[in-house]
Amino acid sequence: MTNPKKSIHGEWSSHWAFILAATGAAVGLGNVWKFPYIAGENGGGAFVLVYLLCVIIIGIPLLMAEILIGRRGRQNPAYSLRDLALESGHKPFWQWFGLGIILAGFLILTYYSVIAGWSAAYVFIAATGTFHGASATRITQIFSQLVTNPYKLLFWHTVIMLITVGVIAKGIEKGIENAVRFMFPIMILLLLMLVIYAATTGYFASGLTFLFKPDFRKLTSTGVLSALGHAFFTLSLATGSIMMYGAYLPKKASITKASIYIAIADTSIALIAGIAIFPIVFANGLQPSAGPGLIFQTLPIAFGHLPYGSFFAVLFFVMLLFAALTSAISLLEPTVAWLIETFHTTRARAAIIAGIIIWILGFLTIFSFNILSHVKPFGMTLFDNLDYLTANIMLPIGGLFIAFFAAWLISKNNVRDELQLSDRWLFKSWHFIMRYITPIAIVVIFLNFVGIIKLNSH
Ligand code: PHE
Question: Which residues lie closer than 8 Å to 178 by C-beta, 6 or more apart?
Fold first, then answer.
């Protein structure tokens, strides 16, 4: 049972390959699509500040914890947690908690795939030159023509799930490594190009002020919780993805360095996307709180006014699609690894079965933009409910457990052995943060949300 030296699913070719793959998992729709629209919904600056604090105080230490658990357990999150608990003399029931983590990633993929489908659709819309010189109203219309049509959404959701299942069925190393290596620099370049366009709109300063000048009156307790949830979502934490990728990490690689690289790359892309988007929002009289359609209603305006705009628009949405796919793949892998290790079935069969269930559950998200848009449990669409449940509730609770597990449950020696922090001081700080700071921060944000304590005025 305990801790196989290598995962039965293989290993990354180097620690750089791991960093690339984990960065590919982290960088995705969360950075370019979700971050701007939830920052917009939550009033900008103060939200961004809380999000950045969460990435630093909670995100990076938890990334390290997840990678070390994965690498020591060398199996899917449920079995890795079980074996690490056993190794330190605790009960095996921790695997149930691991299953909860896998479930969170599984549920996220049901809507992630639908939104990734929007990016795929936009590649084709951009290619026909539709954005050229189009007004903001026309661009908004194009977006609503897509999302109000359940057949179109179903088509693209199906395409995304087929690709995701296909890649996972074949095993992941080469595919992911190459895609990320190639697409990452181009994505940054394209975003910077959009930033330059945004600077010419005359609203650059308003955009920056909105994004970086904290106004705590605009921040609600739900906003604080969303900032925490987003830190988890964007770093792919508490979904099994990072733990799973850690299981394929060679023994010698530095977990600390990897975690810091991943967090920096992920955060920079989100901030650059925000800097590109908000000036366009203000220049065109759009609302920052437009919701999930925000980037699809703003960036095409920029492309429509740039020289060779259609070409760059195609390139941009292809990149976004790739970024989304590398994340979708990482969302499916833990479920598939669990199926293989539990039922000793083939990778292909496991990927197909999981893929079909996720594909069907994706209908909920598809319909929440059209035929079921009036169905609003808890005052939110079905899609918003799913997103809220996973990102704002399941992930932070998962994070709380992971911190507890890594800092209180497994023995300090095992952790030290795995983290290999040469500097004692560095290890002590990490351990202290995991033991006290991370859990307290998460609990405080929850207590603030339910109104037991008051961090902000509303
Ligand atoms: N981090 C990804 C993004 O920002 C989404 C994701 C969440 C991927 C959880 C894997 C696990 O788009």
Answer: none
